[in-house]
Each structure stands twice: as structure tokens, then as C-alpha cells.
Write a structure and sequence with these properties.
The protein is built from 15 helices and 14 strands. By secondary structure, it is α/β, with parallel strands linked by helices.
């Protein structure tokens, strides 16, 4: 921050936050820490769920305020009482303290309606970022609920700026809220200092990790790996993570497959150190931070062509159709025989360091606040 720039007071409003864990939660935490380090005031404002969580908290130095921001759903009694509930939500937002210069919603969910109305009434600029929730929500809420689709359209009309984590995520949101069409893409980031580049092994060892759910395509990966072993008989596939499909994947696992269970960051680093190639076979992936983490450790990636992984990887590595086991197997063999140089993979990850992503968002905030006339 230059001497002439005044600090901003920012509310970051993700769909979920600590103690919940996931990509949006990590993104919010890293942005908040980055802004605080630059001298800005930051508060994470998030839906209070479950209701027994404290209303006021601090997570890794980041102030957190939890407010009940429920939508009414379709129950007649809740619909009838919702105007009163919404007034209470607006009062609760007023009670959070000094008015922010800007509110930034990450991943549109329950929080959008109240924050759209509150920022309109209080003349506070709103920035709305889609993180692929329109198509990647596990409960398929956007497919099932006309209410949440209407809320997204309202938020997009109110927002002073719209962004997406990838071009695909923005296009998917535009199918519901047309204002997202052509919106600015601000990718998600990584902390390169948390990852170490190690020498590339010669052995055909492939690594994958993530939640064991259908979207991640690990069943397809196991089918493809059977074909890989025909070309590379000594190939090994190591899969980290856990989830509802874990036992099904274990039953599918054939020769050369190791299921490692849940991994912390150190475990993922060890997995990548042992591997020559990382594989992200998701059936649909809005961005794909795991691909960037692999690249921060100097590993090339075989990546799904359905979603935002082209943005996440900048096209480095080998693309593959996530519906075609033969195509995925062929891409894995190519990636083994012609790997990405570790230095090239690392350089791309460094271009997505949180400091750079934070600066892109802050530049957007300054522009929005300048247009709004609320900042000098």
C-alpha cells in the first residue's frame, strides 16, 4: 500500500468458513490474511451454521462474525414469516460495527439476499465472485431451487463488479444470471512457500488426491490406470483422500494401486515427491487448486478438460476428456514420457501466489470504490 492509499475496510462474505473446510474457506482465509498484512481492515462475515457456533470469533488472526442468513425455502410458515426474519438479518448486519467500504461475496449461497439488500440500503459497493457453485454444489441446489437462482440474479444486478474463478465458472453462472457473461476472471491462488520442488522420479508413479466423491472422477482414473499398466507394466498409482466413495474405490483398485487415506499438507508433499505425474480427473472442476499445488511442487498435471483446469494450469501438462478412460490413459502415458519441466510448473504456480491474487482483488476494490465515490 502506497503512502497515498488509505486502508480499506472490507467484509469478506463466503458461503462457509471455519470450522468448515474446503476451497472457498481456504481462499477466504488466505485473502483475509493478505489484506491484513497490507494494513487493511478485514472481517469475515458468514452464515451462522450450525447455530451453536459463536457469533464472534478469530481464526488465525482473522476476525469472524457469524450471522443467521437463512433463506426461507418452500415451507409456507417460513415463507410467511420471512419478511420479519429478513429485517432481523439486516439489523444484525448493522450491529456488526463500522460500515465497510466494500462487501465481497465469495461463492453465492444463503448470504447473497441479505447482503444485496443491506449493501443497497447502506450504499456500500458489492463484489460478487462465483466459485463454480452453480454446477459443482454437491446438493445440486441451483438445479433444484428457483429461489437460489433468483437470489443469484438479484445479487448480480446489485453488484458493482462480478468475477469468476475461471472462465467456465463465469459461463455457468451466466446461464442463470446473464450479467456474469464475460465477467473478469480472477483465479484462485496458492502459497508456493508451502511446497517444495524435488527431483523428478524416473519411475512411472502417478498421484491423485481429493475427496472420494463422484465429481472427482477417481473411479474413471482407476479404469484408465488398468490401461496405463498395459503400456507401463511397472506403473504405480497412489491416491490420497477419503469420502463416500472410498470403499467402492478400494473394491475397484487393482495391481499397482495404493489408497493412502486422508492426507495433510505434509502428506500431499510426500505423495508428490514420490510421483512423476499428478492427475486431476474431475468430471467437472470449477478451478482446481490441487492442480496448482502439484505444480508448486514441480509436478506436471494430467487435467480434465471439463471445467476450469485449463485456467488453473495455463494449459501446461496433458488435457484429457474426463468421460473417456482410454483418452485419460493415453494422456497419463504421454505425461510420463514427456513430463513438464519442474521449473516451468513451479513458475506457473508462483504466478498464482496469494500476494498476486490479493493485489488483483484490491485493485478491483479500489476501482469499485472510486466509481462509487466512497473513497478518495
Amino acid at each position: 500500500m502506497t503512502g497515498r492509499e488509505r486502508p480499506l475496510r472490507v467484509w469478506l462474505a463466503p458461503s462457509a468458513f471455519h470450522p468448515s473446510r474446503g476451497g472457498v474457506e481456504e481462499l477466504t482465509l488466505q485473502l483475509a490474511r493478505e489484506y491484513l498484512a497490507r494494513g487493511h481492515e478485514v472481517t469475515v462475515v458468514v452464515h451462522r451454521h450450525p447455530a451453536d457456533l459463536p457469533s464472534t470469533d478469530v481464526v488465525e488472526g482473522v476476525p469472524v462474525r457469524r450471522v443467521a442468513l437463512d433463506l426461507p425455502g418452500s415451507h409456507p410458515r417460513r415463507l410467511a414469516g420471512f419478511p420479519f426474519a429478513l429485517r432481523r438479518q439486516l439489523r444484525d448486519l448493522d450491529d456488526l460495527g463500522p460500515r465497510p467500504d466494500l462487501v465481497h461475496v465469495q461463492c453465492a449461497s444463503n448470504q447473497v439476499l441479505a447482503l444485496s439488500l443491506w449493501t443497497t440500503l447502506r450504499r456500500v459497493p458489492l463484489v460478487l465472485t462465483t466459485q463454480g457453485e452453480v454446477t459443482m454444489d454437491a446438493g445440486r441446489i441451483y438445479q433444484r431451487s428457483a429461489q437460489i437462482r433468483a437470489v443469484l440474479r438479484l445479487g448480480s444486478r446489485r453488484a458493482a463488479a462480478l468475477t469468476a474463478c475461471s472462465r467456465r465458472a463465469g459461463d455457468d453462472a451466466a446461464d442463470i444470471a446473464r450479467r456474469f457473461r464475460g465477467c473478469e476472471v480472477v483465479p484462485n491462488g496458492v502459497d508456493p512457500d508451502q511446497w517444495t520442488v524435488t527431483p523428478l522420479p524416473e519411475a512411472p508413479v502417478f498421484a491423485a488426491w481429493g475427496r472420494h466423491v463422484p465429481q472427482k472422477g477417481l473411479d474413471l482414473l482407476l479404469d484408465a490406470f488398468t490401461l496405463v499398466r498395459r503400456e507401463l507394466p511397472d506403473a504405480v498409482l497412489r491416491i490420497g483422500g477419503d469420502g463416500p466413495e472410498h470403499e467402492q474405490l478400494r473394491a475397484m483398485a487393482g495391481p499397482g494401486v495404493d489408497l493412502l487415506g486422508p492426507l495433510d499438507r505434509g502428506g500431499v508433499q510426500a505423495l508428490l515427491t514420490s510421483a512423476r505425474v499428478a492427475v486431476v480427473p474431475s468430471r467437472l472442476e470449477p478451478f482446481g487448486i490441487v492442480a496448482v499445488e502439484a505444480m508448486a511442487a514441480g509436478r506436471g498435471v494430467v487435467w480434465s478438460t471439463n471445467g476450469g483446469l485449463a485456467d488453473a494450469t495455463a494449459g501446461l501438462g496433458q488435457p484429457a476428456d474426463p468421460t473417456d478412460a482410454q483418452a485419460l490413459a493415453a494422456a497419463m502415458v504421454r505425461a510420463h514420457r514427456d513430463p513438464v519441466e519442474p521449473g516451468d510448473a513451479r513458475a506457473h504456480a508462483e504466478s498464482l501466489a496469494w500476494a498476486r491474487i490479493g493485489e488483483r482483488y484490491l485493485a478491483l476494490y479500489r476501482d469499485v470504490c472510486g466509481r462509487d465515490g466512497s473513497r478518495s
